[in-house]
Structures are given as structure tokens and as C-alpha cells.
């Protein structure tokens, strides 16, 4: 109870309580997280169980439209899948890919940034030049390149099997330079502090100094960057899926649902693509607003 009270009375909790945008964003993000990861339990239907689908239920409109079926509150798609359930499962896939890619990007970027900032020299120059070259290309192009190379070297029958890890790896490898540059800049400042000099004097090795002493003091900007990068990763995944190079149709993400529904947008069945689009916007917007709030809350110049 004391730990919870201390957190509730902390500066960051006070900042959150006094920001209505942060509270609304947190509420939307938490609701979507619960709906996504609790989909197998709380979803009305399993939209990807072929045994439960009925083509007679295809393209049912939302519940407020004429001819709607109360069993499907947000309507159905061309296969008779419940759109509400499909949104829950699709959001789960998008979040899993986004979170996994951000974690991998963060790990790669932190390690390379620490090495670059602490050791310096040729290693620093090499890592930063690689990061500069990669940053000169849009992340979506790098992800497309990595995904295309992976699909070219793997047999066609394994494409669906490797789609998830390849997509995560492509997005992760496209995002590490931001973390590396951020950590490098903070590390170059921290390595000249007294506590680092004292650790060197008593004989602590460089790897221990980097990861036990310097790393905890450079995580603030990394957490803010990771929050913003999560939204970027979700958008990148949705773009790749919309282009047809994302996750397989058997486990679609929000981007896949938007791509499938796009074929019906101008034939009157607008809900098949509009609802996944709204879900994607809400998810990305809530994460972005939380990232903006966290950046301001951790900035001592604004407190």
C-alpha cells in the first residue's frame, strides 16, 4: 500500500491526473488492450473458425441499419464474419507485432548506442554511419526490402509460417537507429560524470559500468521514444498488410481487415473497412498522445 501511495503522490502521477488528454488516452488504450488480449474469452464469435461461418450471414449491416441482425452489432464481412470479433482479434495481432518489434528495436538500439557512446572511436563512427544511411530511407521501404528478401529465399509453402517473425524483424530492423542515436547522446554525457569515473577508479569493468551504471540513467528518453515508436510500428505493420505483404489472411491484423474491406467500400458495405480504420486510428492516436504526455512529464524543464 505504501508503494502505491508513493507512486500516486509522485510527480508523474500528479502530471497524469492533471492531464485530461493523458487520462482519456490511457482509458482508450487500456480498453483496446483488454479487448484485444481477452478476445478469445470476451469476443462474441471466433471469426476465423470456418466451422462457425455461414455465407448467409455475409455483409450484414451494423445494428442501427435496416436489415441488421442483433447478433452482429457491427455487421459482418463478405465471409459472414462478425466485425466486432474480427476487430478484437485484429487489434491483438497488430499490438503483438508492434510490441514485439519495439522491444527488439529497443534492445538492438540500446546495446549499439551504449557501445557507440561509451567506447567511441572507430566503432562509434561505423555504427553512426550505418544509422545515418538507414535513416535516409523511409522505414516502410526498409521493411519492404527485408520482407521481400526473406520471401525470396524461403519456399512459397512456408511464407505464411514465417510471415509473423519476418514482419516483426523487418519493422524492428527499420527502427533501431533512433534508439541508438538517443542512447549514444545520453551515454556521451553520462560517461563523464563522477560516478562513472569513480567506478573506473575502483576497477569495475566497462561492460558492468555501461549496463549497470550508465544504462539506468539513459532510460528516460528511451521509454518516451518506445511509446512513440509503438504507434509508428503499428502503422508500418498496417501499411505492409494493406499492401499484401503482412500477416497471412488466417490471422489478419487491422491492416489486413482494411485491405479486405476496401474492395467493398464503394459498393455500399462501408462498415467492412471503416470500422477497422477507426480502430486503427484510435489505437495509434491514444499511443501517440500518451507518448507526448510522457515526454512532457519526464522533461524537468517543464516541471
Tell me what you see in this structure.
This protein has 303 residues and is mainly alpha-helical. The longest helix is centred in the middle third of the chain and has 37 residues, at 83-119. Helix 6 crosses helix 8 (159-190). 70% of the residues lie in helices and 0% in strands. InterPro entries: BP-dependent_transpt_permease, MetI-like, MetI-like_sf, OppC_N. It is a multi-pass membrane protein. The chain crosses the membrane at residues 20-43, 93-115, 135-154, 161-180, 222-245, 270-291. Its main location: membrane.
What's the short story on this structure?
The protein is built from 13 helices and no strands.
Offer a few descriptive terms.
transmembrane; BP-dependent_transpt_permease; mainly alpha; MetI-like_sf; MetI-like fold; transport; globular; 303 residues
Give the arrangement of secondary structure elements.
Layout: H1 2-8, H2 11-17, H3 20-37, H4 39-42, H5 83-119, H6 121-135, H7 139-153, H8 159-190, H9 194-201, H10 206-214, H11 219-242, H12 254-262, H13 271-297
Largest sheet: none
The number of helices is 13
- Rounded to the nearest angstrom, the radius of gyration is 23 Å
Under CATH at level 1, the class stands as Mainly Alpha
CATH architectural label: Orthogonal Bundle
How many strands? 0
The helix/strand class is mainly alpha
Q: What is the name of the CATH superfamily?
A: MetI-like
**Amount of beta strand:** under 5%
Query: How is the CATH topology named?
Result: MetI-like fold
End-to-end Cα distance: 26 Å
Helix content: 55-70%
Amino acid at each position: 500500500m505504501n508503494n502505491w501511495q508513493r507512486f500516486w503522490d509522485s510527480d508523474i502521477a500528479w502530471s497524469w491526473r492533471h492531464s485530461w488528454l493523458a487520462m482519456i488516452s490511457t482509458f482508450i488504450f487500456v480498453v483496446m488492450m483488454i479487448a484485444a488480449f481477452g478476445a478469445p474469452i470476451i469476443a462474441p464469435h471466433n471469426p476465423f473458425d470456418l466451422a462457425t461461418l455461414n455465407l448467409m450471414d455475409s455483409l450484414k449491416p451494423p445494428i442501427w441499419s435496416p436489415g441488421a441482425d442483433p447478433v452482429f452489432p457491427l455487421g459482418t464481412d463478405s465471409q459472414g464474419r462478425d466485425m466486432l470479433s474480427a476487430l478484437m482479434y485484429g487489434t491483438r495481432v497488430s499490438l503483438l507485432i508492434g510490441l514485439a518489434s519495439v522491444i527488439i528495436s529497443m534492445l538492438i538500439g540500446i546495446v549499439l548506442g551504449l557501445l557507440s557512446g561509451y567506447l567511441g572511436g572507430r566503432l562509434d563512427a561505423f555504427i553512426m554511419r550505418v544509422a545515418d544511411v538507414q535513416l535516409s530511407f523511409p522505414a516502410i521501404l526498409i521493411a519492404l526490402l527485408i520482407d521481400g528478401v526473406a520471401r525470396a529465399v524461403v519456399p512459397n509453402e512456408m511464407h505464411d509460417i514465417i510471415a509473423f517473425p519476418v514482419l516483426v524483424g523487418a519493422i524492428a530492423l527499420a527502427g533501431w537507429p533512433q534508439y541508438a542515436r538517443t542512447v549514444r547522446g545520453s551515454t556521451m554525457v553520462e560517461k563523464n560524470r563522477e560516478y562513472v569515473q569513480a567506478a573506473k577508479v575502483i576497477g569495475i569493468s566497462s561492460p558492468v559500468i555501461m549496463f549497470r551504471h550508465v544504462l539506468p540513467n539513459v532510460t528516460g528518453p528511451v521509454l518516451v521514444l518506445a511509446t512513440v515508436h509503438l504507434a509508428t510500428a503499428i502503422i508500418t505493420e498496417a501499411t505492409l498488410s494493406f499492401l499484401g505483404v503482412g500477416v497471412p489472411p488466417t490471422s489478419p491484423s487491422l491492416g489486413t481487415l482494411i485491405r479486405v474491406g476496401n474492395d467493398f467500400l464503394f459498393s455500399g458495405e462501408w462498415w467492412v473497412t471503416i470500422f477497422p480504420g477507426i480502430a486503427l486510428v484510435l489505437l495509434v492516436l491514444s499511443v501517440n498522445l500518451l507518448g507526448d504526455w510522457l515526454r512532457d512529464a519526464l522533461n524537468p524543464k517543464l516541471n
